[in-house]
Amino acid sequence: MSRDQYTLTDPTALYADIDTEAQSQPGAGLDANMRDQPDLGADTYRGTGRLEGRKALITGGDSGIGGATAIAFAREGADVALSYLPEEQEDADRIVALIEEAGRKAVALPGDLKDRQYCTDLVARAVEQLGGLDILVNNGGKQQTVESLEDVTDEQFDETFKTNVYAMFWITKAALPHLQPGSTIINTSSVQAYQPSPTLVDYASTKAAINTFSKALAQQLAPKGIRVNVVAPGPVWTPLQTAGGQPPEDLPEFGQQTPLGRPGQPAELAPAFVFLASPESSYVSGATVHVNGGMPIL
Ligand code: NAD
Ligand code: MG
Fold it and tell me: Which of 20, 72, 198, 229 is 20 to 30 A from 49 in CA distance terms?
């Protein structure tokens, strides 16, 4: 079945061949280690010049939703800097190669988002090596499922907030002096901000914070001609979900609760980021685009 952005297809029937069988990975996990590979759009995404000459920084750009977005941005004409953990080099190498195949510049900047110094250096290095910055995607994230709040360690709570919320604050703050009018910031929230799972109390709270941070900042930056928007994914087949994001035994049913009856693939998220990054969305700011398999958000 055709999976490109332009062919009429039944959305319930897509990706029936991708089996989200029970599996688990240590650390942040790798796309390379997933049994059935997520679709990042590498074989299908067709650009139409919507981001020609743009300069983008994407955190968590090595895999999953950020990886798919990096591929799409490059095929739309953008040069792309990627942030990811050093242990994800194998995944990052693949995305770098795909960006370069698209004829664009790729800048690989590994490090730990929990480290304030890395976050500020990341922006400085991206600006220096790209020759500026006009798209910022805060997408790196940590999600660990824990049954009982009593078992959420202070360390996990701190790491989840550092990775998901503080890094966004540090990176955005460092990026602002470089962003000219027309620049765009896109933050990755989640359906968890709206319909939190009982076992993701800390993570869901960070995703609500990301959403609200973005809506406040969008108003502050609108007079400067900088737009801030949010993508709120539903269940998407990525390493994060196989690296503690879900209990492994729940993965076979992953995404089946959505009206479309299946998990999303990273390739299905990337077009939302392209839309919000490009001047196509020139009158859209402070918005959240829900890409969640049809779960109603009121
Ligand atoms: P992913 O594992 O492919 O991406 C997450 C990335 O975060 C990793 O690749 C890693 O590079 C980065 N990261 C995590 N901790 C880091 C750290 N300390 N330092 C540097 N980088 C770090 O998974 P994904 O699902 O594509 O996640 C991307 C975003 O989408 C996350 O913000 C996640 O919360 C959000 N999201 C995912 C889903 C889903 O179902 N997969 C649903 C809603 C929201
Ligand atoms: Mg990764």
Answer: 229
**Is position 227 within any domain?**
yes
> Is 84 annotated as catalytic?
no
> CATH number, domain at 159?
3.40.50.720
pLDDT at 87 over 90: yes
Residue (of 124, 225, 221, 210) closest to 174 by Cα position: 124
CA distance 37 to 172: 32
Note whether residue 25 is domain-resident: no
Q: Is the CB of 65 under 6 A from ligand 1?
A: yes
CB of residue 258 inside a 6 A radius of ligand 1: no
Nearest Cα residue to atom 6 of ligand 1:
60
pTM of the predicted structure, to 2 decimals: 0.98
Does ligand 1 come within 6 angstroms of the Cβ of 293? no
Q: Ligand 1 mean position to 142 CA, how many Å?
A: 6
Quick: pLDDT tens for 34-50. 999 999 999 999 999 99
Q: Which domain holds residue 268?
A: 49-291
